[in-house]
Specification:
With 118 residues, the chain is mainly β. It has one domain: Jelly Rolls (Sandwich). The chain has two helices and nine strands, in the order ββαββββββαβ. The strands form two sheets. A seven-stranded mixed sheet has the order 6-5-8-3-2-1-9. A two-stranded antiparallel ribbon has the order 4-7. Strand 1 and strand 2 form a beta hairpin. The radius of gyration is 13 Å and the shape is globular. The chain starts with a strand and ends with a strand. It comes from Roseateles subflavus. This is DUF192 domain-containing protein. InterPro entries: DUF192, Saro_0823-like_sf.
């Protein structure tokens, strides 16, 4: 994938989910475009700063979680399909995840997520 990786922490506790970090403008611009289906490592992409996601040209659906600057979940979008758009005004991070991870992790607004370590 080419991005630095981190482990996703939920409410301060490490999960099994490994994600890529897209923190530079060219990494954010490309996102997961041209990337195959997400697997266990990495299972998603942390994009910051970012408050919207487009699925133009994508081949698979994604779960998208929007976070504020402190890592508090503002909005969860499960199964965002190709050729759709999503946004969350006030978000600082868009976390694109393998479909099903929102439900698997029990993610919902108000919970805190962090990307830590390598």
């Amino acid at each position: 994938m080419g991005w630095p990786e981190a482990r996703l922490h939920l409410q301060g506790i490490a999960t099994h989910v490994r994600i890529g970090l897209a923190l530079r403008w060219w990494e954010r611009a490309r996102g997961l475009l041209f990337h195959g289906p997400l697997q266990d490592a990495p299972a998603g992409l942390w994009i910051a700063p970012c408050n919207s996601v487009h699925m133009l040209g994508m081949r698979q659906a994604l779960d998208v979680v929007y976070l504020d600057r402190e890592g508090v979940i503002l909005k969860c979008v499960a199964g965002l399909r190709p050729w759709r758009l999503s946004a969350c005004p006030g978000a600082h991070v868009a976390l694109e995840l393998r479909t099903g991870l929102i439900a698997e992790l029990g993610l919902k607004p108000g919970l805190r997520l962090q990307a830590r370590g390598g």
